[in-house]
Amino acid sequence: MNVTDEEAARHREKMAKRKAVQDAEVAEKKIEKGLLIVHTGPGKGKSTAAFGLALRMLGHGKRVGVVQFVKGAWHTGERDAFAQFDDLLSWHSMGEGFTWETQDRARDVAAAERAWGKAMEFLADPEVALVVLDEINIALRYDYLSLETVLAGLEQRPAMQHVVATGRNAKPDLITAADLVTEFGAVKHHFAAGVKAQLGVEF
Amino acid sequence: MNVTDEEAARHREKMAKRKAVQDAEVAEKKIEKGLLIVHTGPGKGKSTAAFGLALRMLGHGKRVGVVQFVKGAWHTGERDAFAQFDDLLSWHSMGEGFTWETQDRARDVAAAERAWGKAMEFLADPEVALVVLDEINIALRYDYLSLETVLAGLEQRPAMQHVVATGRNAKPDLITAADLVTEFGAVKHHFAAGVKAQLGVEF
User: Which terminus of chain B has a lower count of CB atoms within 10 Å, N or C?
Assistant: First the structure.
């Protein structure tokens, strides 16, 4: 691609302006705090992005706690990869598979409560830099967990601890409490074209 | 939480129906193919989710190629974490930082073209299960790369190879070519509340 001098000058000016805006924005931000992050919406990638954050923390040598509230058998790829970080990562899985596979509400509620108990251990430990509450929004949606209990637990956590809560249909009060909320929108999905779940993409 | 017998029965019925629908949907899907995945939109998590996919592939013992088209110094946490997978992962970074920091279009174009050359090596290698083209949408948006060249390169890749292309403002023709597109929407962002970029969250 050819770049003329005029183009180059125009580009330089545009980028210089943009850098000035960027620098000013960065300078304005002074607060440091543990963030409550919510990944919600119907699109794919909510849990994957949460595990990406976990990976980043582990890369910085920080401790991470993961609690999976719904999926049992899934995320096998991540689990195997994370095995490399055994000293920094604690992983608790409900281990019951999808709830529509168990068809036993009492068992699901008991499993969700056990998972929340594990989450509370992480939420009490300032050494844990990031807590991943994977698919907790599903547990909240089916009232396996009370929203008040969860919000109170999040509220009392160490000031610098980050939390990421995933799952579609996040409760409005959780969004209100959150610092960072991303809505994952499904623009196009290969399942609609008859493509099956594949290794590395879905599991 | 108490669960009455009636509630339990209702739940069992609902979940059994849902499982039947789910099983039928899974049975319908027979196609296996390498997916072109696009993470776009203004929300946070596009690259993080792509690196989460990379992690999953590495966990399955598959090879992954990463090319970063814009960010140079970022993703240090991921890079350090991925160092554990040196035998499976190849990482190419343009290493020029954000484009509005360089203010030199000719240099940016040359760097983008070098990065694309590296991408083409991955896109020619059937042993690479996943290619991450991080922030390629930015390079396309600024015309550092031609869309036709990129689409042609993606088209001729190995049939089972997955690709994930990230960055806001994905070109409509890239979305048309894609199998899976997630739009990351920014519902709430902590920068607006004066919170600065923090270790493990932004870098």
Answer: N
CA–CA separation, B95 and A32 (whole Å): 27
Q: Does residue A63 sit in the same domain as residue A101? A: yes
The answer to whether residues A37 and A157 touch, using CB atoms and an 8 Å cutoff, is no
Q: How many domains does chain A have?
A: 2
The predicted complex's ipTM stands at 0.76
Is B200 within a domain? Answer: no
In a shared domain, residues B96 and B46: yes
For the domain that residue B70 is a member of, what is the CATH number?
3.40.50.300
Q: Rounded CA gap, A44 and A188, in Å?
A: 10
Instruction: Answer yes or no: is pLDDT of A96 > 90.
Output: no
CB contact under 8 A, A179 and B187: no
Which of B2, B4, B10, B11 to substitute to test the interface with A, most A CBs within 10 Å?
A: B11
- Give the residue with greater pLDDT, B118 vs B7: B118
Are the beta carbons of A60 and B80 separated by less than 8 Å? yes
Instruction: Assess A180–B contact: CB distance below 8 Å, yes or no.
Output: yes
Q: Residue B81's domain spans which residues?
A: 33-185
- pLDDT value, residue A100: 58
- Residue B165 sits in the same domain as residue B128: yes
